[in-house]
Specification:
This protein is α/β, with parallel strands linked by helices. The chain contains 15 helices and 19 strands. The strands form five sheets. The protein has an eight-stranded mixed β-sheet, sandwiched between helices. The chain has a five-stranded parallel β-sheet with strand order 2-1-3-4-5, with helices on both faces. The structure holds cytidine-5'-monophosphate.
């Protein structure tokens, strides 16, 4: 899958309370422009009706092996032939057992056996069923067979018990499948370290200096790097966003903490991308307790923060470094100047007016070959274009030996 190609998916539901999450999963994928063909087992129809899934997917839902609507009457073969993957969510203990043993006694299990495409399963069951030796064996067998196992998560269960066996949330399954299916994977075996979000520089116990960066761009770059096959570590300042899936996350607050966290990881990484809006200054003498109000004018003394990106770029065995520049005017001039001053091969510049907090962005990439505009698009599309450029430049030899 290239950045703009949307895989066609077959979503299979087996019987479980988590079937309601499959409705949300269908909605998310369809909203994202994907074509989703839904197949349900009879047991799944006891939890949610095909009518709901048909309305959400915009396509007829198949349940019966002998459904005559498929032209050659071979639903069990034809329905998966134009699909990039089959995703079974929820995958009940019974369905996992069938898949592990190659049983094919209904449409969904037969489709899985007759498929040519990858298979993903999102287990959903009571914790005792998940922990049972038979399920452990079946999961091990499925893994050995190359099936992708998504989750399960731990937490409250519909039966009132607490433990492992909850199906992942729809958004998590949606993302994990698309990241895995994304092709090509030019960064497989490479480690990417990136900073994201704002930093918060304490003034006292409750107040601080910060900025309006949301972390969205950094998290989008993390996902794009994952799609390209990289192992990703994110050092993030305070943000309310969900943790990027499949990435190691180090949460920090201030620029000095971000600096320390980056220095602890940088030796191992091949690529460093500074997406964070690092505060340039911090209060020189933060107070441990809340500063009390008075009538007098107050002066806050600020000390410069370490420039993390410049420091990493100047390391003797520096990784391939990418910087961001958020400017409110004279984008080209400031961006070019910044790239040269920090001695980095690639810099992505954007106007703060269009970038901060928004879901869309317009990036201009600067490197030795010149300037390249990535037209306004969602931040994930922008991030993919940036990663594609990183890969191109690294292919020309700019890769740190690790
Ligand atoms: O100099 P300026 O802050 O505009 O540079 C922006 C770029 O440098 C971004 O990539 C940002 O993450 C990085 N930076 C940094 N440490 C700082 C300031 C900026 O890593 N103290």
């Amino acid at each position: 899958m290239t950045a703009s190609v949307k895989p066609r998916l077959l979503l299979g539901l087996s019987g479980g309370i988590a079937a309601y999450k499959a409705a949300e999963l269908t909605r998310l994928w369809v909203q994202d422009g994907l074509d989703v063909q839904v197949v349900m087992t009879r047991a799944a129809c006891g939890f949610i009706t095909p009518v709901t899934l048909q309305a959400l997917s915009g396509k007829p839902v198949y349940v019966d092996m002998w459904d005559g609507r498929v032209g050659n009457n071979m639903a069990h073969i034809d329905l998966s032939r134009d699909r990039a993957a089959i995703v079974v969510a929820p995958a009940s203990a019974d369905m996992l057992a069938k898949l592990a043993h190659g049983l094919a006694d209904d449409l969904l299990s037969t489709l899985c056996l007759a498929r040519e495409c990858p298979l993903f399963v999102a287990p959903a069951m009571n914790r005792q069923m998940w922990e049972h030796a038979a399920t452990r064996r079946n999961i091990a067998q499925l893994q050995a067979d190359g099936v992708f196992i998504l989750g399960p998560a731990s937490g409250d269960q519909a039966c009132g018990e607490v433990g492992l066996g909850r199906m992942l949330e729809a958004s998590e399954i949606a993302e994990d499948v698309l990241v895995e299916l994304a092709q090509p994977k030019p960064l497989r075996g490479k480690r990417v370290l990136l900073t994201a979000g704002p930093t918060f520089e304490a003034i006292d116990a409750v107040r601080g200096v910060t900025n309006r960066s949301s972390g969205k761009m950094g998290f989008a770059v993390a996902r794009a790097a994952r799609e390209a096959g990289a192992e990703v570590t994110v050092v993030s300042g305070p943000t309310s966003l969900a943790v990027p899936r499949g990435c190691a996350l180090i949460r920090v607050e201030s620029a000095p903490q971000m600096f320390e966290a980056v220095m602890g990881e940088v030796e191992r990484c091949h690529v460093f991308i500074g997406v964070a809006a690092v505060a340039d200054y911090r209060p020189s003498a933060p107070q441990a307790h809340k500063i009390k109000k008075s009538d007098r004018t107050m002066t806050l003394e600020l000390a410069p923060n370490p420039d993390i990106l410049a420091h990493v770029a100047a390391l003797p065995r520096a990784p391939f470094c990418v910087g961001f520049a958020a400017e409110s005017r004279d984008l080209d001039r400031y961006a070019q100047d910044k790239r040269q001053r920090k001695r980095i091969p690639l810099l992505a510049a954007n106007l703060v007016q269009t970038a901060i907090g928004s879901d869309d962005n317009e990036l201009v990439l600067f490197d030795d070959a010149g300037r390249h505009v990535v037209a306004r698009a969602p931040k994930l599309e922008q991030a993919r274009a940036l990663i594609a450029r990183v890969v191109e430049l690294m292919a020309h030899g700019a890769i740190a030996p690790r």
